[in-house]
Each structure stands twice: as C-alpha cells, then as structure tokens.
C-alpha cells in the first residue's frame, strides 16, 4: 500500500517536470532530450547492435518526439542529446529494456 502513496506523490513532481519540458530555454531542452533519450533507449538497442525491441515502444517514442517537437535548431540539439542519453542509459543499465 505504501508504494502507491509514494508513487502518487512522485507523479506530481514528474508531471511538473514533463510540463516544464515544453518550455523555453536550455533546461527544458535538456529535460525533453532526456525524456526522448529514455524512450529511444527503451525502443531500440544501441550497445549490442541496432535492433528494435517492440513496436509499441517505437510508437511511444514517435509520439514523444511529436509532442516534444520544437524549432528546427532546438529540435536538432534535442535529438542529438537524446541519442547520447540513450547510449549512456543503455551502457549503465544494459538489461533494463
């Protein structure tokens, strides 16, 4: 029962972070690239050859990219950082996906 209470309180802060990711500035670009990077790491394997895990995770990544789309220059920075974050994510947690 306690885990649900903790998850309920944590979801408030996570919602604020996701809301802030659509904002302006470098911090929001970093946050949105972290979100897209984790979704990318869950959808594709980068460290053990490139292959797809599940089609539903690809759809989630595509929807995340569409929601967090920005101006072209900021979007290029965001996608570049997301690939780096996905590679680091899979290097640190190789069997999480």
Write down the overall geometry. Answer: globular
Low-pLDDT stretches are none
How much is the average pLDDT?
A: 87
Query: Could you give the count of β-strands?
Result: 2
Q: How do the strands of the widest beta sheet line up side by side?
A: 1-2
Total helical elements: 4
Structural commentary:
The chain has about 100 residues and is mainly α. The chain has one domain. It has four helices and two strands. A two-stranded antiparallel ribbon has the order 1-2. A hairpin with a 5-residue loop joins strand 1 and strand 2 (about 50). The mean pLDDT is about 85.
List the helices and strands and how they pair.
Blueprint: H1 2-20, H2 26-43, E1 44-45, E2 51-52, H3 55-67, H4 72-92
Antiparallel strand pairs: 1-2
Helix pairs in contact: 2-3, 2-4
Question: What features would you highlight for this structure?
Answer:
mainly alpha; 73% helix; 97 residues
Give a quick rundown of the structure.
The chain has helices at 2-20, 26-43, 55-67, 72-92; strands at residues 44-45, 51-52. It has 97 residues and is mostly helical.
